[in-house]
Amino acid sequence: MLEELLALGVSGAEYDAWLIRIGEGDQFSSGFVEINPNSKIPALSDHSTTPPTRVFESGNILLYLAEKFGFFLPKDPAGRTETLNWLFWLQGAAPFLGGGFGHFYNYAPVKIEYAIDRFTMEAKRQLDVLDKQLARGRYVAGEEYTIADMAVWPWYGNVVLGNVYNAAEFLDAGSYKNVLRWAQDVGNRPAVKRGRIVNRTNGPLNEQLHERHDAPRL
């Protein structure tokens, strides 16, 4: 979101991205808990306000920034509501994809057939819902790129592109043609490419930027 705002020339969207090493328990430090008492990433502290405003939960961060800067959230009631429909759809759906399917299919040390089957069925159902929606327009909430796309793409876009869980073939991702078209479209946005490397600590070295404090490095 912040990279998209910077691409539009919104200077007030300059930001620092600190690396929180969850494997080392950084999320339980007193400083982080002051921002997000639930000890989960991401979290945001807006120091342009007095006192600083804490914002946690990814959907709320997107909504906060969209309202603060006036971009990526339609102004008309119908467009705004449709965007929020899909933003909140993602908040409810993603745990089944990540914590459910992704965990049992790719990460669990013991493969449990029932769990894999159960969450595979749900992941494919969700992809079908999204595919039918994307048959209606270029982006998730219509013809305009919004915070709904920013919320949904890291989960479902990355799945069909084969970037997470090693599951694109298993899920028959190619059959969700509208999702795949949209995933490629969004993934090719320069701001998305820049944002994906921020706080990344794996993969090719040229695709890692552990912390972001110097805009020219992007």
UniProtKB/TrEMBL annotation:
Gene giving rise to this polypeptide: yghU
Sequence ranges assigned to domain GST C-terminal in this UniProt record: 79-205
The protein's name in its UniProt record: Putative glutathione S-transferase YghU
Pfam families for this protein: GST_C_2, GST_N_2
Family annotation (InterPro entries): Glutathione-S-Trfase_C-like, Glutathione-S-Trfase_C_sf, Glutathione_S-Trfase, Glutathione_S-Trfase_N, Thioredoxin-like_sf
Signal peptide: none
GO molecular function: transferase activity
UniProt keyword list: Transferase
Domain GST N-terminal: 1-73
